[in-house]
Specification:
Elements (H helix, E strand, L loop, with lengths): L1 H24 L6 H26 L21
Length: about 80
């Protein structure tokens, strides 16, 4: 089992080295996510909060969370 594990580690190390070399030789230019990622994330959070704020406060949904005071017992039949 030891040679198999050693071969697996060798393949893993080789892949890590190739990735490191590949990243070292390419120019890192900021892409869309680097430039605008935080702004998009904050915008989404604002829209999410606004929509749910409207739904919870202005839409007039009867949520009915507690049956206290609304459930009445039926008359006993004999």
């Amino acid at each position: 089992m030891f040679p198999v594990a050693r071969a697996a580690l060798s393949l893993t190390a080789r892949g890590i080295r190739q990735t490191a070399v590949r990243q070292a030789h390419r120019k890192h230019e900021p892409d869309f996510h680097d430039k605008h990622g935080n702004l998009v994330l904050i915008g989404g959070a604002v829209v999410f909060t606004a929509v749910w704020g409207y739904v919870l406060t202005q839409l007039g949904i009867e949520w009915g969370l507690s049956p206290v005071g609304r459930v009445t017992p039926k008359e006993w039949r004999q």
